[in-house]
Design brief:
The chain is an all-alpha fold and about 100 residues long. The protein has 5 helices and no strands.
């Protein structure tokens, strides 16, 4: 398990979004120094911090964990902007009765 890949994934998503470390830090109430340390793999984020970062980057947490999870599942979706990928059409939503 390579925990440092989480930081690489955070950096990749941040850059894809055109966001600076300072902007991500502001959106997550973290310091830009801490964001840099996470991206370089010098620190490990708590679950709460990981969720804050995923929300700020508008990605699912599995995108940030894509090389850490040992599930056999490989994400085919790189970091994306929400407007790029319409996941579910309104007509496809069904509720259990």
């Amino acid at each position: 398990m390579n925990i440092s890949s989480i930081g690489k994934n955070i950096r990749e998503c941040r850059i894809t979004k055109g966001m600076k470390q300072e902007e991500l830090a502001e959106k997550t109430d973290l310091s830009s120094v801490y964001i840099g340390m996470l991206e370089r793999g010098e620190k490990t984020a708590s679950l709460e911090t990981l969720v804050k970062i995923a929300n700020a980057l508008e990605v699912s947490s599995d995108i940030l964990l894509k090389e850490v999870l040992v599930t056999g599942y490989r994400s085919r979706i790189p970091c994306y902007r929400k407007s790029w990928i319409p996941f579910v059409k309104k007509t496809e939503i069904r509720f259990m009765q």
